[in-house]
Specification:
Keywords: NAD, Oxidoreductase. This is Aldehyde dehydrogenase. Pfam families: Aldedh (PF00171). Belongs to the aldehyde dehydrogenase family. With 460 residues, the protein is an alpha/beta fold. It has 2 domains: 222 residues, Aldehyde Dehydrogenase, Chain A, domain 1 (3-Layer(aba) Sandwich), CATH 3.40.605; 188 residues, 3-Layer(aba) Sandwich (Aldehyde Dehydrogenase, Chain A, domain 2). The protein has 16 helices and 18 strands. The strands form 4 sheets. Strands 10-13-14-9-8-15-16 form a 7-stranded mixed beta sheet, with helices on both faces. Strand 4, helix 7 and strand 5 form a beta-alpha-beta unit. Helix 2 packs antiparallel against helix 5 and helix 3 packs antiparallel against helix 7. The longest helix is centred in the middle third of the chain and has 19 residues. It is globular, with a radius of gyration of 25 Å. It binds nicotinamide-adenine-dinucleotide. Nicotinamide-adenine-dinucleotide binds next to helix 8 and helix 9.
C-alpha cells in the first residue's frame, strides 16, 4: 500500500501536475479502467466500510449502504463516459460557413476534494467519480472527525491508485489549511457555510473555481390534504436517519394548524415503530459524532416544549429522537442548522405565513413539501428558493443520480451527481473551426461603405 503521509503537500501536488502533463488521464480508456478499479476496490472492502461507519457514527448497515451505493454512480459514469466526453456540435451563424462550432470537455488538472464527517464515505467518493471521469488527478482530504472512515478511504485509495494520480491526505484543520494555501485547479468542498467562506477566500488567491456543498436549515411544509401517516413516516425517517446528522435532514416542520395535532401523534407513533420505546437500545439508531456536537445539541433543547424524546446520555453521545412544540423563532434551535435529532414543529394558518418564515432565513439546501394540492406545490416552488426540492418525501432526491445535487446562496454553489459531477470537473472548451473557403472581405479595412452591408449580413 502506498501512502503519502510523510510527503510534503507541495511535492504531492507537483508529482500530480507532472503526471497530468503526460496527458495519460485524458485517455478515455485510462479513465474507464480507473473507474472499474475504484468500483472493484469498494466492492472488495464493503465489509470494512460498514465497520468503519459503525465505529465512527454507529451507523446501521442499511444506512451505511446508502453511502456505499455510490457504486451505482460509478457504473453510470462507466456507461455514459463516451457520450459525456463527445464534442458537442453547435449551430453556427450563416456568415461563418463553412465552419464547425464545438464544445469539448477537457479535464481541469489537479483537484482538491475536502469532505465532511456525516456521510464520510459518500461525500468523498461521489465527487471523486466525477474527477476521474473528467480526467483529473485528485488530492483528497476526508474529515478528521470520522477517523475510521478517513483511514479506510486512505487505504482503499492507496491500494488502488498511485499517489501521483490520486491520493489521500489525512488530517484536521491544519492540514486543510496547508492544502488550501496551495494552488489547485478546482476545489470541491463539502462542509459548513462558515468553513465554506474560508475555502472560497483561499481559492480566490489562486483564482481557483470551487464547488461548495454546504448546509443550512432545510424546512419541511405539510399542508392539510396529505396522507398523514405516510408523511409522518417519511419525515421521521428523513430526520432521524444518522441521528439527524444529514445535511438535507428536514430541519424544522411548518404544519397547517388543522392537522398539526394529528401529524404530531403520527410522528410520535412512527418514532416508536422505528426505534421502539427505548431508542437507546435500538440497533438502528445512531450516535452524535463527538462530545462537542453532543453538547451543542443538548444546548438547543430549551428552545421549546419537548413533546417526544429529550433523553440524553453523555457517555454514549446519545440524544433520543426529539420533537419540540411551541418553539420560539428567537430560540437558538431556530437560528442555526440543527444537524442532530431535534425536530421543532410550528403551526401555520395561511400557506403564505409558512412561505414568509422560510424566506426569513437564508436559502436552504433542501425544501420539503408534503401536499397533494398542485396549486400549493406551485405556490411554494414559485415563492421560495432552495438548492433542491423534494415533494412528498424526504432525502431520496439525493440518491436520484440523474438529479444534480447542490445548494444556492448560503447553502452552496455548484452541483454534483451523475453528469453534473463530470461537468463540475470539466472545462468546456469552445472551439470554432473555420475553413479557407470564402474569405469575404467585408470585415477588413478600409471600411468605406461596408457598414450597411455588414448590418445586412449579420442582421443584429
Ligand atoms: P466543517 O465545515 O466543519 O468541516 C468540513 C471540512 O473542512 C473538514 O474536512 C474539516 O477538516 C475542514 N475544516 C474545518 N474547519 C476548517 C478551517 N477552519 N479551515 C479549513 N478547513 C477546515 O463541516 P462538518 O462539521 O464536517 O460538516 C457539517 C456541515 O457540512 C453541515 O453544515 C452540513 O450541512 C454540511 N454538509 C453538507 C453536505 C452537502 O452535500 N451539501 C453534505 C454533508 C454535510
Amino acid at each position: 500500500m502506498q501512502t503519502i503521509a510523510t510527503t510534503p503537500i507541495r511535492d504531492v501536488i507537483t508529482a500530480q501536475r507532472q503526471f497530468f502533463a503526460t496527458g495519460k488521464t485524458k485517455d478515455i480508456a485510462f479513465r474507464l479502467t480507473q473507474l472499474h478499479n475504484l468500483y472493484q476496490a469498494i466492492k472488495n472492502r464493503e465489509d470494512a466500510i460498514y465497520a468503519a461507519l459503525k465505529a465512527d457514527l454507529n451507523k446501521p448497515n442499511v444506512e451505511a449502504y446508502y453511502e456505499i451505493v455510490v457504486t451505482r454512480d460509478i457504473k453510470a459514469a462507466i456507461k455514459n463516459l463516451k457520450s459525456w466526453t463527445k464534442p458537442q456540435k453547435l449551430p453556427i451563424p450563416l456568415e461563418q460557413f463553412p465552419a464547425q462550432a464545438l464544445r469539448v470537455p477537457e479535464p481541469l488538472g489537479v483537484v482538491l476534494i475536502v469532505g465532511a464527517w456525516n456521510y464520510p464515505f459518500n461525500l468523498i467518493i461521489a465527487p471523486l467519480i466525477g474527477a476521474i471521469a473528467a480526467g483529473n488527478c485528485a488530492v483528497i482530504k476526508p474529515s478528521e472527525l470520522s477517523p475510521h472512515t478517513s483511514r479506510l478511504i486512505a487505504e482503499i485509495i492507496g491500494e488502488t491508485f498511485p499517489p501521483h494520480y490520486i491520493t489521500v491526505v489525512e488530517g484536521g484543520i491544519d492540514m486543510s489549511q496547508q492544502l488550501l494555501a496551495e494552488k489547485f485547479d478546482y476545489i470541491f468542498f463539502t462542509g459548513s457555510p462558515r468553513v465554506g467562506k474560508i475555502v472560497m477566500e483561499a481559492a480566490a488567491k489562486h483564482l481557483t473555481p470551487v464547488t461548495l456543498e454546504l448546509g443550512g436549515k432545510s424546512p419541511c411544509i405539510v399542508t392539510e390534504d396529505v396522507n398523514i401517516e405516510v408523511a409522518a413516516k417519511r419525515i421521521v425517517w428523513g430526520k432521524f436517519v444518522n441521528a439527524g446528522q444529514t445535511c438535507i435532514a428536514p430541519d424544522y416542520l411548518l404544519v397547517q394548524q388543522g392537522v398539526k395535532a394529528q401529524l404530531l401523534a403520527a410522528i410520535k407513533a412512527a418514532i416508536i415503530e422505528f426505534y421502539g420505546n427505548e431508542p437507546a437500545n435500538s440497533p438502528d439508531y445512531g450516535r452524535i459524532i463527538n462530545h462537542s456536537h453532543w453538547q451543542r445539541l443538548t444546548g438547543l433543547l430549551d428552545g421549546g416544549e419537548i413533546i417526544v424524546g429529550g433523553q440524553i446520555n453523555p457517555d454514549e453521545r446519545y440524544l433520543s429522537p426529539t420533537v419540540m412544540d411551541n418553539v420560539s423563532l428567537e430560540a437558538a434551535v431556530m437560528q442555526e442548522e440543527i444537524f442532530g435529532p431535534i425536530l421543532p414543529v410550528m403551526g401555520y394558518g395561511e400557506l403564505s405565513e409558512a412561505i414568509d418564515q422560510i424566506n426569513r432565513l437564508p436559502k436552504p439546501l433542501a425544501l420539503y413539501i408534503f401536499s397533494h394540492n398542485p396549486n400549493h406545490q406551485e405556490q411554494i416552488l414559485q415563492q421560495t428558493s432552495s438548492g433542491t426540492v423534494c415533494i412528498n418525501d424526504t432525502l431520496v432526491h439525493f440518491i436520484t443520480s440523474n438529479l444534480p445535487f447542490g445548494g444556492v446562496g448560503n447553502s452552496g454553489m455548484g452541483s454534483c451527481h451523475g453528469k453534473a459531477s463530470f461537468d463540475t470537473f470539466s472545462h468546456y472548451k469552445s472551439i470554432l473551426k473555420r475553413s479557407f473557403l470564402f474569405d469575404v472581405d467585408l470585415r477588413y479595412p478600409p471600411y468605406r461603405d461596408k457598414l450597411s452591408w455588414l448590418k445586412r449580413l449579420l442582421g443584429g
